TrEMBL record:
This is diphosphomevalonate decarboxylase. GO terms for molecular function: diphosphomevalonate decarboxylase activity. It comes from Cryobacterium sinapicolor. Residues 182-308 form the Mvd1 C-terminal domain. The gene is mvaD. Residues 9-169 form the Diphosphomevalonate decarboxylase-like N-terminal domain. Keywords: ATP-binding, Lipid biosynthesis, Lipid metabolism, Lyase, Nucleotide-binding. Belongs to the diphosphomevalonate decarboxylase family.
Length: 330
């Protein structure tokens, strides 16, 4: 039928991180964030609204999976459709997603998944939402997904509005305007990390550093915006590492502690410092898991990949360029 759409969205990695919620129901972040979208990792999602479906179905890499968060986003799409008088408002949907990277490799990111879902579901419903609305829709699935609607460098605004209408991402700079590379060092396949949603709520509830994290966010965001504006790679890299380590200090002081690193994660961090001592401009950042992402200039990517692959416990190192905005596949 005509109620199908397919979309692709790329993963992203935050340079100034999101951790903590302002409103858990609207999934608005307590702090803004700045990220780069990654070309090498993406999700393709097909959405079909159809009659005769008892519930929404979610198929991930061909396996029936939990649809709770998917239904939450689809309910918002059905709400928009109802306000436009579209017939898809009353229908359930089949959602099928595939990642271009092996599922369970510890690279799975809700960011690319919910950005692709926002674009495909709104398209299948018959809606043509502007990027800002797509970003808000993706945010309801996962905060980091709001940034994956955009390519290149993106900034997510924490917002202040009670209804979440100003908590969206937007593009800061096109990827063609400052090509950078990210080397992803995989230290653990099939990681079993504590889910971000749970982890950030625990940090808010228990870490004595949480207030300092909130208070210092705007300064980091302003400095990162300046580094991007000036194409100052050293400033971008130093600030990314600093903000990453500040996040992990917050995680480590959460009760119970959120220790996302393994031995190879730490070895990779030292290897990046070693690269800098040898004159290669490279900086690491780490999310809620053990993988290490290394920021560098495209001309240094092969040397960085080589160095990362030699780190004990690193299984694989992949090079990514910066990626495009989410788009429809038809
Ligand atoms: C460490 O976006 O996964 O990757 O909104 O609860 O789904 P929810 O959280 P999520 O958190 C991402 C945390 C992070 C930092 C970041 O991407 O900014």
């Amino acid at each position: 039928g005509g109620a199908t759409a397919v979309a692709r969205a790329h993963s992203n990695i935050a340079l100034v991180k999101y951790w903590g919620k302002r409103d858990a129901t609207l999934n608005t972040p307590a702090v803004g964030s700045i990220s780069v979208t990654l070309d090498a990792l993406y999700t393709d999602t097909r959405v079909t609204f159809a009659p005769d479906l008892a519930v929404d179905e979610f198929w991930l890499a061909g396996c029936r999976s939990d649809a709770t968060r998917i239904t939450h986003v689809l309910d918002l799409v059905r709400g928009y459709a109802a306000s436009m008088g579209l017939p898809t408002a009353g229908l359930n949907a089949v959602v099928s997603s595939t990642n271009n990277f092996p599922t369970g490799a510890g690279l799975a990111s809700s960011a690319s998944g919910f950005a692709a879902l926002a674009l495909a579901a709104s398209g299948a419903a018959g809606l043509a939402l502007p990027a800002r609305e797509l970003s808000i829709l993706a945010r309801h699935g996962s905060g980091s997904a709001a940034r994956s609607i955009f390519g290149g460098f993106a900034e997510m605004h924490a917002g202040t509005a009670a209804d979440g209408s100003d908590a969206y991402a937007e593009e800061l700079l096109d990827r063609a305007d400052w090509p950078l590379a990210v080397v992803v060092a995989i230290t653990e396949h099939g990681e079993k990390s504590i889910n971000s949603t749970i982890g950030m709520n625990e940090s808010k509830a228990s870490s004595p550093f949480y207030q300092a994290w909130l208070d210092s966010a705007d300064g980091d965001l302003a400095e990162m915006r300046g580094a991007i504006h000036d194409r100052d790679f050293t400033r971008l890299g130093e600030l990314s590492e600093y903000n990453c380590l500040k996040l992990h200090a917050l995680m480590l002081t959460t009760r119970p502690a959120l220790i996302y690193w393994n031995a190879a994660t730490v070895a990779a961090m030292h290897a990046v410092q070693g690269l800098r001592a040898a004159g290669v401009s490279a900086y690491f950042t780490i999310d809620a898991g053990p993988q290490v992402k290394v920021l560098c200039r495209p001309g240094d990517a092969a040397a960085v990949q080589h160095a990362m692959a030699l780190v004990p416990g690193v299984h694989e190192a992949r090079i990514s360029a910066l990626g495009p905005a989410a788009f429809r596949l038809e």
